[in-house]
Amino acid sequence: MSEWAQKIRGGDLRALARAASGIENRDPAALALLREMEKAPGHALIVGVTGPPGAGKSTLVDAMATALRSQGKTVAVIAVDPTSRITGGAILGDRIRMLQHHGDAGVFVRSMATRGSSGGLARATADLARLMDAAGRDYVIVETVGVGQDEIEIVCLAQVTIVVLVPGMGDDVQTIKAGIMEIADIFVINKSDQPGADQVEREIQMMLNLGHARHPAIVKTIATESKGIDQLLDLVARPHGLRRLLQTAAGLAIDHLGIAVESITNAEPFYELLGLQVTQHESIPSEKVNVAMLPAGNSRIELLEPAAPDSPISRFLEKRGPGLHHVALRVPDLQATVARLRESGARLLNEPREGAGGHLYVFVHPASTGGVLLELIQEGPN
Questions:
Q1: Which CATH number fits the domain that encloses residue 59?
Q2: CA nearest 56: which of 169, 152, 177?
Q3: CA atoms within 13 A of residue 106's CA, in its CB half-sphere
Q4: What tens digit of pLDDT does each residue of 209-234 get?
């Protein structure tokens, strides 16, 4: 391990700050350091905090960091701020709110400018989160800029996503429900001592009752008084959604990629040009699909052809055209995995049942996975 990496692993905050600056500026030496350190990743839980402007996200993050330090946990805070038109850097409002942690080596706060990026994050945010994980932090809290309806990139980075709302939003809850409202693992109603907190909670519950794919918790907080923070952190520490399961569970491997095609016969020649050979054709009456299996290393490609007009593959082709239909992962214990997913509120599309090749499988709805239909398969023989 290089001297720079050793210093960071040893808790040298100056070395960590220099690495963070280099990564944000896309310095080759810092990026090489990140690649080196990622070979031995840490154990950090990455928590995303997002919500509309004025919801008190920074104050909430500050209270969370204080409570985590009282538990003996180390914390990194990555606060994504608007870009200053004068300097091009971050407007350091978030760091100013967290000055109480100055001198505490257990809390590392980094403000970074969006630099024109949309989605609520900066381009280098994910790399910075990986750096903090590799540096040995217990928690990495990523606070987005104030977001609206469709700035939901945080869901691709965080293992647990907190959406912060406040009383007095009126119809704003309805306005943004098709965006950030759908990515929450936990809803926080901050400033809950103000009139309208119960109304916001009812709005959220109403949305969840209308066929919402997930079942997030709702917590009321008063971040300025640290009220509700312990309850929030208890929820954060629980498994939430498929993202955290996949990021923390061992023994997972890609089994296959399912590709929807209009005709297996027409599609096969292309894959044969790549050196792949069909080893099995199979029809799955329960799914109304014909399958061609092409082994590729330790996994395979499955070409999926509709066997009937009302096949799910037919509907997929009508809506999206040919392309990636699903990703399949092998799991050591499908029943235990299904139990964990149900406990976390993930939306399952079927009970475990036998599929192509005789394996047991279950599908997880894209709303719980970040947008991709996921198939989980029992590893080995049934």
A1: 3.40.50.300
A2: 169
A3: 12
A4: 765 555 788 999 999 999 999 999 99
